[in-house]
Design brief:
50% helix; mainly alpha; 253 residues
Length: 253
């Protein structure tokens, strides 16, 4: 029991208790308590000042004054929205933009083609995936020669070097000079992985160059469609080729 409650009980007065605000009425604002009157008063005066400022602004406004929101604003489903102006582009400007786009794509495609040629010159397409394997045919006069055939002896090299399609020296060369290049299995495996990575990069660049070529063709087709010449679509556009149109023949002056 609080001291105020005990004092009121001794004096015979009814003790004052703050009643809680019902949950259903919390949306209506602060409960009327002695300690909350300052907050309610400040909120009331703030709203009154805002209303007076809006009234003054409305009185000072010139009703004949024009501003662009008068024609750009509208109500949609009760919501005030502003229309976004559409970009006005003439056919000549659109053609020029298409031309700039084609030049940029073509420039990137040519740069990619140069990188492809440089990679091809470095790799020489050795052991490339998808490349038709080289075939070396040997001709014999009898089946006995076929059965006794030894490819290492025929090529005059070591059996360990038969599987190498490049850098396969003869025994006579090995007697004069040492074998150049990597010979250890771990080093050979590492070089093979590096060569595979280079071929993967080459494949990606080739695919990118083809994609840029298709993009340039599609941009050129859209540029041609800006003409008012009568045209008929012959083939639909696909991911690998642009749409094909047949234009009406016009005699040039």
């Amino acid at each position: 029991m609080s001291a105020a409650f005990r004092k009121a009980a001794k004096s015979g007065q009814r003790p004052h208790r703050e009643r809680a605000q019902p949950a259903a009425r919390r949306r209506l604002g602060l409960l009327e308590k002695k300690k909350d009157y300052r907050l309610r008063a400040d909120d009331y005066h703030k709203k009154q000042n805002a209303l007076r400022a809006l009234q003054k602004k409305a009185l000072d406004k010139n009703p004949d004054e024009f501003y662009f929101k008068m024609i750009r604003a509208e109500l949609q489903d009760g919501v005030h929205t502003i229309k976004q102006p559409k970009d006005e582009v003439t056919p000549e400007q659109a053609k020029l933009m298409r031309t700039q786009d084609i030049k940029y794509v073509e420039m990137k495609r040519v740069a990619e083609a140069k990188k492809i040629e440089r990679l091809k010159s470095e790799l020489h397409l050795l052991d490339a995936e998808g490349k038709n394997p080289n075939k070396h045919m040997f001709f014999f006069d009898s089946k006995k020669e076929v059965q006794e055939f030894d490819i290492a002896t025929h090529l005059d090299t070591l059996p360990e070097l038969v599987g190498r399609v490049y850098n396969r020296p003869t025994i006579a060369t090995l007697q004069k000079e040492t074998l150049k290049g990597a010979t250890e299995p771990a080093h050979l495996k590492k070089l093979a992985q590096q060569r595979k990575n280079q071929y993967d990069l080459l494949k990606q660049r080739i695919e990118r160059e083809k994609a840029m070529f298709v993009v340039a063709q599609k941009i050129q087709t859209r540029k041609d469609l800006l003409d008012k010449t009568h045209k008929v679509k012959v083939k639909k556009e696909t991911t690998n080729s642009p749409a094909i149109y047949k234009f009406k023949f016009q005699r040039k002056r």
